[in-house]
Q: What sequence folds into this?
């Protein structure tokens, strides 16, 4: 018992701000693919994408395509995913021009399938 007479074992478990939690107590992991169109190659778009993803705790990957786009996959909690999607749609790297960003269907995963966010060559 704590100083207030409460049984500390009944207190909710601490979790990081912004994490979604299932009834089971497991953190929900969302995943979706993306492709960004516009001037997104030769403007450090992948590097800035990796930095933004890491700052949000997003895992996954991105790569240049032969069509001049950048595509990839992002995984994270719903708040981080929302913020990352907005960044991919609206911000990008300082010298990029985003015409559009297309997202695949968001899936819920039992766990992460990537250890970190990487740039594929």
A:
């Amino acid at each position: 018992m704590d100083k207030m007479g409460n049984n500390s074992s009944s207190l909710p478990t601490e979790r990081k701000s912004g994490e979604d939690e299932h009834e089971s107590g497991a953190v929900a992991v969302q995943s979706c693919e993306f492709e960004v169109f516009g001037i997104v190659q030769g403007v450090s778009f992948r590097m800035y994408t990796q930095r933004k993803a890491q700052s949000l705790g997003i895992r996954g990957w991105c790569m240049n395509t032969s069509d001049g786009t950048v595509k990839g996959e992002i995984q994270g909690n719903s708040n981080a995913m929302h913020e990352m999607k907005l960044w991919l749609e609206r911000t990008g790297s300082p010298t990029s021009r985003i015409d559009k960003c297309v997202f695949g269907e968001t899936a819920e995963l039992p766990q992460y399938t990537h250890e970190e966010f990487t740039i594929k060559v």
